[in-house]
User: What shape does this take?
Amino acid sequence: MVIRVVVADDQELVRAGFGMILDAQPDIEVVAEAADGAQAVEAVREHRPDVLLLDVRMPVMDGLEAARRVCAEHPGTKVVMLTTFDIDDYVFDALYAGASGFLLKDVRRDDLTHGVRTVASGEALLAPSVTRRLIGEFTARRAGPASPARPPSRLLQQLTGREAQTLRLLARGLSNAEIAAELTVSEHTVKTHVSNLLAKLQLRDRVHAVVFAYESGAVVAGEP
Assistant: This one.
């Protein structure tokens, strides 16, 4: 199956570069490019891509607002925010908007294509080099009472022991293969645990499982 992608960035060279790298892959097709957030939203409406690569800072409509609209209108499209190493406040808000992943704008080509495939498969992850820093700062800024519509303690009680372990390992940024090695189980079993815990916790994907793990107290920032 071909992964259909829209690339949105106000810098033409960035758009063109990402587009060329992705289009060169036999299983990825760039169906549209956008120079601002408004164009990105329209491109998603027209093309219904699997993945939207979305720059945080853009004219007309910024990436955060575009992410909100796309995630609300097109839940089948995975939004990946493009950011720099210096984490932007918009990125924290993008998690709540529904973004499913983050990539650094200086990402290597192999990591870019792997990231798109990962997000498209539903195994959305943050860039490994910023995972712990991003989540740590995110949870510190968002600290406060849990939403009454989704009490974390009640939902956590629904998890089996293995599912709870899997959630904690997800929060450390581990991949399915790494979790499988840690728990001495197969990757298929890990995928089953992840699917089950997402359903029980009423979460969109792995990124939001990581956020939930910190916000609910299942994992404490700074712990190994």
In short: Residues 71 and 98 are 6 Å apart (CA to CA).
